[in-house]
Amino acid sequence: MGKSTDDRPRWTFLTNHARVLLEIARDPQVRVRDIAAVIGITERAAQGIVTDLKEAGYLDPVRVGRRNHYTIDAGQGFRHPTEANVPVRVLIDMFTHRDRTGTAAERTGAADRTTEDQTM
């Protein structure tokens, strides 16, 4: 129950906008094509989300050669009024903390279960 015929959840706690922001936080020079592949959306949808985030002031893309380098305004609050006083940095830190500070084994998912349970 709760899953569609293709075994993907019908809903999730994080929106695609949050997922795009997190992918950019992990790699500020990530290509839209790669964002789309990781998240499981079309390139067009990913580009639309990047545009939404840029227009809302969360992203500042700068062209570097043939790629964009994105700077995130992590101090900006969430969009919903009930979370507007919480900076998106909280979300970014929550989901990218292990990417930045974990060992290579932890980043690739090769860490043992005990280590994972202690961090939660």
Can you give me a brief rundown of this structure?
With 120 residues, the protein is mainly alpha-helical. The protein has helices at residues 16-26, 32-39, 43-55, 89-101, 104-108, 113-119, and strands at residues 59-64, 67-72.
Using brief descriptors, characterize the structure shown.
120 residues, mainly alpha, Arc Repressor Mutant, subunit A, two-stranded antiparallel ribbon, 10% strand, disordered C terminus
Give me the secondary-structure topology:
Blueprint: H1 16-26, H2 32-39, H3 43-55, E1 59-64, E2 67-72, H4 89-101, H5 104-108, H6 113-119
Antiparallel strand pairs: 1-2
Region (Disordered): 100-120
Domain HTH marR-type: 16-63
Pfam family, one: MarR_2
Structure write-up:
With 120 residues, the chain is mostly helical. It has one domain (16-119): Orthogonal Bundle (Arc Repressor Mutant, subunit A). It is 48% helix and 10% strand. The chain has six helices and two strands; from the N terminus they run αααββααα. The protein has helices at 16-26, 32-39, 43-55, 89-101, 104-108, 113-119, and strands at residues 59-64, 67-72. The protein has a two-stranded antiparallel sheet. A hairpin with a 2-residue loop joins β1 and β2. The radius of gyration is 16 Å and the shape is globular. It starts with 15 loop residues before the first helix and ends with a helix.
